[in-house]
UDP-4-amino-4, 6-dideoxy-N-acetyl-beta-L-altrosami ne transaminase
Amino acid sequence: MIPYGRQSIDESDVHAVVAALRSDWLTTGPAVEAFEAAVADLAGTARPAVAVTSGTAALHVAYAAAGVRSGVKVITTPFTFAATASTAALLGGRVVFADVEEATGNIDADAVEAELDEDTAVVAGVDYAGVPIDAARLRPLANAAGALLLEDAAHSLGSTLDGRPVGSLADITTFSFFPTKNATTAEGGAVVTDRSDLWERSRSFRNHGLVREPSLQRYPDEGAWHQEVHEFGLNYRLPDVLAALGSSQLLRLQSFKDRRAAIHARYGAAFEGLDGVVLPSAPPRADPMWHLYPLRVPSERRRNIFDALRADGIGVQVNYVPVYWHPVFEDLGYRRGMCPVAEDWYRREISLPMHAGLSDDEVDRVIESVRSALR
């Protein structure tokens, strides 16, 4: 089976992990600091990234830093993995879904504008398949309403918009380093921002909310051992072993991007002009790191095409079930039909294999199988 996504590991990664295991630090050490600096450099932020244990943890941290709490409104896309919405809901946020653009699958700024009001704390967009959201329009819209723009960039580390890297476009941005993502730490994530308040709150939340600086403590004279918790947080610290893997991976990020672009171009040339098929696209302003290759096929045939590809050893996937279709949201009163463009994307979408380790022969095999299934 050719997987739709997988990690690309070489001996340099293995060496980096072994070196971390042999060091004096397994967690909260220099490998984490080095990784945080490397992520910030790629993201174009002056402050180091806040490394955490997963992309989901990154979202939880970012929403907490943004002040999401009971009753405040969070506008987000339904066309994403559930964590983009569930982490806001777990903090008590009132999640409102805005529909997506037909061309990209990204959150639609017009739909967001229609939902914005004084209760909105965060607008959270997702860089679907690696294509950056329209932050140039979304951020002023959100900020004018007193809200923050959060960019869920789980798909888009290495992407740019108008020549600026993802990570520098929104008020706060989250990354994922799951094995299928553009670079991996096995499990891991990160938060980046250049706002000092959001950065400090992110760092605090990922470490139990601990306050160790005497000047900030309520009872600073207890002794050198003293630490306090002023606001609740969690242990979302990324270990040095995983951070070392991440730093090694980031050294090859451009080569990963180049290979994904070549695969994308090869697919595009093979499928251009096929009846009933829509190819993934990006606006001219964007230079995506293609995380997915989301092919749209006739909805009435999608199940049969998907099953035929799987039977032929092509590990296709569907990304994503609209979030509010999940029973946990259905039980909260959300109903199908709310975001028709996102639902049409779901009914037609099949993610073809897309990762840096795919050989040309494997890509050709995918192409042959897809063309056969579409006949």
